[in-house]
Amino acid sequence: MMAYITEQNGVFPSVCSLDCPDQCGLLVHKENGRIVRIDGDPEHPVTQGAICNKVRNMTERIYDKNRLQYPLKRVGPKGSGQFERITWDEAISTITAEWKRLIEEEGPEAILPYSFYGNMGRIGTEGMGRRLFNRIGASKLIYSICEAAGTEGYGYTMGGSYGTDPEETVHAKLHIMWGINAVSTNMHQVAISEKARKQGAKVVVIDVHRNRTAKWADWFIPVLPGTDAALALGVMHILFAEGYTDEAFMTEFTVGHEQLREHVKSYTPELVSSITGVPVEDIYKLARMYGEAESAFIRIGNGPQHHDNGGMTTRAIACLPALTGQWLKSGGGAIKGNGGYLMINKPALERPDLRAQGGAQEINMNLLGIALMEPQGQKLSSLYVFNANPAVVAPNATKVREGLAREDLFTVVHDLFLTETATYADIVLPATSNFENTDLYLSYWHHYVHLQQPVAAPYGESKSNSDVFRLLAEGMGYEEEALRDSDEAMIVQSLNNPNNRNIASITLEGLKEHGSIKADVKPLFPGRLRTPSGRIELYSAQMERKGFPPMPTYTPLVDDGPYPFLFIPTANHNFLNSTFSNNEKHVKLEKTPKLHMNRADAAVLRIEDGDAIKVWNDRGDCELTAAVGDDVLSGVVVMQGLWADGKDGKALVNALTPDRVADMGKGATFFSGRVQVAKI
Ligand SMILES: Nc1nc2c(c(=O)[nH]1)N[C@H]1C(S)=C(S)[C@@H](COP(=O)(O)OP(=O)(O)OC[C@H]3O[C@@H](n4cnc5c(=O)[nH]c(N)nc54)[C@H](O)[C@@H]3O)O[C@H]1N2
Ligand SMILES: Nc1nc2c(c(=O)[nH]1)N[C@H]1C(S)=C(S)[C@@H](COP(=O)(O)OP(=O)(O)OC[C@H]3O[C@@H](n4cnc5c(=O)[nH]c(N)nc54)[C@H](O)[C@@H]3O)O[C@H]1N2
Ligand code: SF4
Ligand SMILES: [Mo]
């Protein structure tokens, strides 16, 4: 397998490492040892040769002049970006000496690893790093920044992250994109839905913004932010009232449909319209379309979920397919996330047994600023950041940066670039790109498992996450075998999951031969779900025990203060979270950070299209360019993209976002903040 690295010229199989549901099969073209082009793999059944613009321009990023090549130590104030080159030996000995001192003087929970899925490779994210920090006995991070609220909510209804096979959705006759900007964030679902559309299917988009996906749809339904549960309940009201429900399906496969029938009587179309801003006749039209569709598929995105009520909203939407028996129809059902099907052996990979004390304090990654500035438990004195850029992506960024600026916080950042977070580090370590590593990739949307074998040599002195953790374990003087396992050994351990038959026949050898393999996923129905009852839980006793309403219920957003606009800072087309926001080509394609606002609101504030504007609340402020029109409802403003420090360092949207947690999963509430806007 070293062959891929040593070959100077040729085309090599690869997989996209980005945190994107599509997880594309790639072909990497090399000339004279350098990657010169990246294409979609035409043989990959889901990718079918098509990839996004972001990754077609990936070579610009891997050979960007600013890519880190050497370890660095800080020589100026935190945040200033002044660093000096050091050797790996010095870097590792500085970090381990400081950690040994902290463990001795303050205890191991003074150390917090902070990571996410900047590279989705499971070995690099969940392997040696988790093992090392378990062995240390460090504070535990709760990985709640992305899908946590919705995953918990969907799970109450469906028993886990199990939905429709996206390849089957080509047969669905109605495709509802519910709070997902799929044209930008799940382009192969759009390709499949488009194919279905050519065979007569209809596409409906329910969103707060007439974005690229809304413009592609047959019908765009604008909804007020955070009100989707009410809309779903209104649709249920009509489905029951007008006899569209599939009684046989509900009787056999659900719990609580009789209670639900009673429960939704109060969600009249008139009431739902007053909550959601959707006209009464459109609620009827949507419900009848759904009820009459031969088969209907709902793709549930982050929109409903990144709110105070995100868990319950996702649960409510997830109930809909059961009412009309969609789960037995070709291509019908829903996808929130399909991660459950490809579940690997997490304990074998992460080795929680290496933790001498068992438990440790848990730090919610959405509350990093609070954890650093107003600790509830043990004070944090060291932070190790990899695969993540919290100074840009975490909510309440002002507080996060105050925390990162603490002189008594020893911070290490491992990344490919000197990110905004890295500018606060004491030690910066250069990371290899995914193309330089061995790793295992599991999509959370389609059913394929991929292997990445290194296709290029490490850039400069960069090292993979696993390699750095192995060095740190050695430097700490730890002798456990598990801290020396190779990446391939960890792949073998992960794939051996007796609790998941879907991946039983997938082996490292098989992956080496084929690159990717589709898991052997059986249809969900007929079958037993992983809910307590084994059925779809329209009524959830489990939720009731936890203090939630047992039925899907609309709960309004939390009062976020006296500011007139709900502020929705979402993903954009050419970045991936903050990744690419520092790469010239991608920034150029995205042009400027804009705030979309309604014409009527702009007129009152005397703001015109293209004006420089200030957006603020109690948490912070940022400067953007006004995009005035009819793409958002009055009272709503939408911004796209995590612009890092953006134009002149002033487009940091997370300076404004709340660090409250959602109703479920300790999830993020990026979209539930309020702001004021004014012309500069
Ligand atoms: N190009 C690109 N692709 C990406 C990413 C990226 O940054 N850029 N990020 C990746 C990651 S990590 C993830 S998790 C996914 C996220 O992908 P998506 O699920 O598409 O998430 P967002 O774009 O954040 O938000 C989805 C949509 O929800 C809408 N919305 C906001 N609030 C509400 C609401 O209350 N109700 C409704 N109905 N809609 C609402 C927004 O306008 C937006 O169109 O995409 C992945 N793919
Ligand atoms: N306002 C607002 N904030 C959001 C969101 C939103 O919609 N709105 N979306 C949220 C969501 S859904 C998510 S998932 C989070 C994502 O938040 P993050 O996971 O922090 O995502 P990125 O900003 O892409 O940062 C990933 C970093 O990992 C680095 N990296 C890539 N590969 C490797 C590697 O192999 N090793 C190491 N050590 N580093 C590597 C990249 O260079 C990059 O700097 O952001 C959240 N923040
Ligand atoms: S970011 Fe998504 S669409 Fe683009 S290449 Fe990667 S997996 Fe495919
Ligand atoms: Mo995400």
TrEMBL record:
Domain of life: Bacteria
GO MF term set: iron-sulfur cluster binding; metal ion binding; molybdopterin cofactor binding; oxidoreductase activity
Required cofactor(s): Mo-bis(molybdopterin guanine dinucleotide)
Keywords, sorted A to Z: Iron, Iron-sulfur, Metal-binding, Molybdenum, Oxidoreductase
Listed SUPFAM superfamilies: ADC-like (SSF50692), Formate dehydrogenase/DMSO reductase, domains 1-3 (SSF53706)
Residue stretches making up the 4Fe-4S Mo/W bis-MGD-type domain: 9-66
A Pfam family annotated for this UniProt entry: Molybdopterin
UniProt similarity note: Belongs to the prokaryotic molybdopterin-containing oxidoreductase family.
Protein name: Molybdopterin oxidoreductase family protein
Species: Paenibacillus albus
